[in-house]
Amino acid sequence: xxxxxxxxxxTCWKPDQPGREQEVIEIGACLLNPLCEIxxxxxxxxxxxxxxxxxxxxxxxxxxxxxxxxxxxxxxxxWHEFLDWIDEHADDSIGIFCWGKYxxxxxxxxxxxxxxxxxxxxxxxxxxxxxxxMKGLSKQVxxxxxxxxxxxxxxxxxxxxxxxxxxxxxxFVKYFDEFLNGRRR
Length: 185
Fold this sequence. Notes:
five-stranded mixed β-sheet, 41% helix
């Protein structure tokens, strides 16, 4: 069994500019083996199509430049590369783990838009919800807050998919049994 710890970045605007449909602009993932060791990493930028120009806010938040986005491929191409990466590095059984339910919704919407397979998302687990339950928290917390609560230092650039996935992997490994079995600690 393989465990894919996944994170996305999406187009974004200042909070006072609502109503725009977000598109995935980056997929980052770490594949952990059954011993909770990282066997492989995946990181690709994605060219948005509906809103092809990143907002100043998005560039500032993520550090992703318009030039990098312009050189990137569209979601349909990158999604197939992601699925190929999973097939190449994992056995038949995988689980997809993210921080929150929004990444799954965004991926499902994108797959639907392009008519792409999304079967791997059937094994999706929301670690944000599981962490709040496990810790007996009255509300869910952000990844940064959870890492701080656990004494885990964030490594890399925040709001980038691969560093976020890597840091989430550290939390996943710490509470591996609880996350897999839904237990409280």
